[in-house]
Every structure is written in structure tokens, then in C-alpha cells.
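By way of example, what follows is a protein record of this kind.
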Amino acid sequence: MWFFLIFGIFIWLPALLGLVLLAIFLLFDMWGSCTYETTLNGEVLTQKRHCYLITALVLTAILSILIIIGFLRMIHVL
């Protein structure tokens, strides 16, 4: 029973949280990326950047590292 409890806390919970966060950020990215305005020769140019997607990828990478650390702790390596 302890095995399933530790496995659930350190592996499945961060993995599900990461998938939910990735879905939320991808949904925001589909709605519209953040925009910023620049001026070029007096003209205002509006450019879009996919910063929600970048944020989602960074969060997913961080959560993946946490999942690996949790797995290594579970098998008593760390």
C-alpha cells in the first residue's frame, strides 16, 4: 500500500498536473499570443509571440525533472 501511495504522489500527480498545465497554456496560445508593438520609421508594427507556448514547454520540462527526481527517491537512489 505504501508503494502505491508514494508512486501516486511522486509520479502520477506531477505528471497529471503537467499535462493539465500544458493543455491550459496551449489553449491560451490558440486564443491569441501576446502582442507587442514596435515602431519602424514612424509606423507602428504589431508582432505576435508565442510566449504561452514557451512558458508551457518550460513548465513541462521543470515538472519532468521533478518526476524523475521523485522516481529516483522512490527507488532510494537519492
User: Anything to note?
Assistant: The chain has one domain: 14-74.
